[in-house]
Amino acid sequence: MSAPQPRRVRVAVVFGGRSSEHAISCVTAGSVLRVIDRDRYDVVPIGVTPKGRWVLGPSDPARLAISDGRLPEVADEGGTVVLPSSPGSAEIIVSEPGAVPRVLGEVDVVLPLLHGPYGEDGTLQGMLELAGVPYVGSGVLASAVGMDKHYMKVVLAAAGLPVCRHVLVEPGPWEPQRGRVAAEVAGLGWPVFVKPARAGSSIGITKVDGPGGLEAAVLDARRHDPKVIVEEAVHGREVECGVLQGRPGGPPDTSVVGEIRVDDTHEFYDFDAKYLDEEHVSLDVPADIPDDVAGQARSLAAKAFTTLSCEGLARVDFFLRTGDSLLLNEVNTMPGFTPTSMFPMLWAATGLDYPALVDRLLTTALVRPTGLR
Fold it and tell me: What tens digit of pLDDT does each residue of 50-95 get?
């Protein structure tokens, strides 16, 4: 009698979600589902609908791709998926109307590919910590701080890292803040960029060239988040560096540095430029920058990663100003994995191809304990 085959590691790939980045999360998941090693991993795709219901998602990556400009979405159909909620049991249960709940088996690790609030911001991470289920990526604190552009800058600046100047529009009524915000923004100079504080994929961002457009831009950003920041416009180049968790007790590993170049078709690297227009956007990997500048970017990326207590992975974005000085723009604790995303391209150029990158993330998560660490 032949020996029984060892059970494959069961991975719950969670995607979609309630944020405005729902579609991009779906595209990210489709890309990962296309490359993950099915001989080693038993994959359970779990989609979260725009209204927050958890369902068994499609396993066909083609259904999660952008097609003819159409953005994918998790359909609100099929049984409701229930993840474990307490330590000691890691079973996934599917509940359907009129049927006995069925058990899909125990989850070994969760790959949370949610972007934005209600997933990337520490909420899902907190749920998994409570359940004692291993997961890929940063914990509650780093996820929450990394998602909030205001607090991220506060923490990074306190650690001595160079960040962009900004003005905070606090949650709450706009009228009492109007005068203060207008005066403080004028001190940044024009133009400025108005952004939802806790959103990504350039959704809700407006470039404002003068005082007359500020209020409309703030109100537009508030459609996505009641908390808004207004940032100075930095004249320079956009460069990015990938970071992966290193060996236990050692420093994080950093990738080569890449550059994003957008032609005059787009005023900045907006949503369309990121996901719908490959013709007018170039991703240069590695970036054509001096070696010492690339080294500085990698050093700053590693410091930002450790300052925020990140784990697993992150992508750190910079502005490279004239004179080769760097300003740290953002730390993304769950960067995109779409076919046009910079993060997998950076690691491929560093010697870690897409399938190996996914495998490393899962392997790292499986050996990391949940709880205080």
Answer: 999 999 888 889 899 887 778 899 988 877 887 766 676 667 777 6
Q: What whole-number distance in Å separates Cα of residue 293 and Cα of residue 318?
A: 11
Which CATH number does the domain housing residue 205 bear?
3.30.1490.20
Residues 177 and 294 in one domain: no
Is residue 225 within 8 A of residue 310, CB to CB? The reply is no
Tokens of 199: 């959103």
Is 92 a member of any domain? Answer: yes
Return d(Cα 21, Cα 341) in angstroms, integer.
Answer: 14
117, with CB counted inside 10 A (0-12, 13-18, 19+), is buried
Confidence of residue 269 (pLDDT cuts 50, 70, 90): low
Whole-prediction pTM: 0.89
Instruction: Let me know: does 110 contact 14? Beta carbons within 8 Å.
Output: yes
Structure tokens at 190: 């024009």
Domain that holds residue 191: 166-232
Number of structural domains found in the chain:
3
- The candidate with the shortest Cα–Cα distance to 9, out of 51, 42, 53, is 42
